[in-house]
Amino acid sequence: MEKCILLFVKYPEKGKVKTRLAKDIGQDFALYLYENFVLDILEKLSGCSHNLIIYYYPRRDISSVKKWLGDRYFYSPQNGENLGERMRNAFDNVFSEGFSEVIIIGSDIPDLPIELIDKAFNEMDKHDAVIGPSYDGGYYLIGMKKEKFLPEIFEKIEWGTEQVFDDTMRIFGKEKYNVYVLQKMRDIDTIDDLKSFYERNKANDFSISRTMKSILELRILDSFN
To answer: Which residues contact 211 (CB under 8 A, 6 or more apart)?
Structure first.
């Protein structure tokens, strides 16, 4: 079966990305960090055997996106009034192109293990859907098969709240879907999230990543120790 990963990213504009984190570290540092988040995720994904499409937001000239991330990837703009509509439309588009198993991941966890993505695809063979909850009440990964696609999970959800995961699971449950829940992960949205990220990676292989180097280079955490 044809499998595909959709990476949802925001085009990096000052004041438009990592806004909560920017309140503590400044908009320039937040922008620089986010750019490195995406580059690190893409470097990890380069070790995957699955197809990859980068879905970017907001809609803009593709040349500016390719200037940022390079022309080796397939790109598509996110279409929709809110995150739910954009994810639903992305699933619809990719299923119509012939893919049978699709996973969407965000760009807030630069150290997301490739093993988790592989596990998600493996579990999707045995379940109706797969989801990865985040500590803030949302989710960092959602995956479905073409024949079990359920657009209702993207409707009537208050995006950006701590109820997103629970409300999504409630809809799955109402439809009697057998959903595999991955381990919980922590998005980087606040200075506490950034501290946690740094602590869990300062002594492992990810310590030489762009994100970790930028934290040290900019001495972001020094004033928060």
So the answer is: 33, 36, 37, 40, 110, 111, 197
